[in-house]
Amino acid sequence: MRKSIKIVLRALIGIGALSLMVAGAAQARVDGDTIILGSAISLTGKYSTNGIHAKNGYELTVKKINEAGGVKVGGKSYKIKIVYYDDESTPARGAQLAERLIKQDGVKFMLGPYSSGLTKAVAPVTEKYKIPMVEAEGASRSLFTQGYKYLFAVLSTSEQYLSSSIALAAEIAKKNGRKPQDLKVAMAFENDPFSLDVRAGVADDISKYGMKIVIDDKLPRDLSDMSATLTKVRALKPDLLVISGHSKGAATAARQIKEMKINVPMIAITHCESAKVIDKFGPSVNGFLCPTQWSETLSYRDNFFGTAAAYDKLFKATYSNYKNVPYQSAQASAAVMVWIDAFERADSFDTEKLRDALADTNMQTFYGGIKFSEAGNNTAKPMVLRQIQDGKFNVVAPSKWASHPVEWPRKPQ
Known about the structure:
Layout: H1 2-29, E1 30-31, E2 34-41, H2 48-67, E3 71-73, E4 76-86, H3 91-104, E5 110-111, H4 116-128, E6 133-135, E7 151-153, H5 163-175, E8 184-189, H6 193-209, E9 212-218, H7 227-236, E10 240-244, H8 246-259, E11 266-269, H9 277-281, E12 289-292, H10 308-318, H11 327-346, H12 351-359, E13 362-365, E14 368-371, E15 384-389, E16 392-397
Parallel strand pairs: 2-4, 5-6, 6-7, 8-9, 8-10, 10-11
Antiparallel strand pairs: 1-2, 3-4, 12-15, 13-14, 15-16
Helix pairs in contact: 2-11, 3-4, 5-6, 11-12
């Protein structure tokens, strides 16, 4: 008899647990008047600086839309909430957490992680379960050659990041009576999908102009020391030094360029803002060329945030520890805006209808135009190049968007 009671109790507990799991899944998808989005994001580990920038961008848009009355679907207003898990800057952990968000938490609407490597780990998971994901931080062009149908990216792809610096070097050479093919280029890149794609874009443009690569190094895994590369730079005296290693790599490069008194006429480096190189290294970084997905000086606008300058002002008022708004935050905000637009156009929570609405996105935002190719990348927005001039980021290329002339050669203090 006791054995039978135990069996019944176990069955009842199992049914209860199952019902809780089902209820949890339903709540995680749409909980009453709240739409739940999910994201595995780097809050610790080597990508944590940019992961936190992205999270702040997500949250700023959520706060603004909720204060404005929310999202209208089916004649009802819904608030937005994002559930986060820390992927610890580890691709395997990111994939595991994406599966947890979908299978255990019942999330049906995803935002991306930080970095191309983490996005490459998460995308097969969201694709497997046919869960749409709007991502803002994975720029690797190889993400958009896999045939994914549920992946949409608001940012420009990685091969565009530093290629404009090659064109700018060629332009300056011609103005000074030199041939572009006489220029020497030194390169140092992290061995990760994003940076290697940046390198591919740079290499393509170097080949186009016939320039000579004199250094082509991979940065050490922990990104804490690039003195070996800089020693070669001092000896070979290149005309242009190009570096990509996310925030930690940018900080290391800026520190060691200062310490080793490396003076190259032109230095182009990714992630200047998020590494806070101006705050940390002062006048020594004057003249650095820094690619950006977005700038507050651009003439982009929308009916939600207003102008790029208005977004900049609101972000700094909300997060007072920022002197410059990282583009990682701006594009994260844009990703949430894309979801809001898709919900209202689809007028549904059906994931297939939402996928189709996302595919048909064609909108202007404070971050720039957003329109997705069949592969899911944004074809409506260019990269721009800024230069650090007297402690400020000023747009210098392409000329259509330039707010200031380029300063060459760079004159660190």
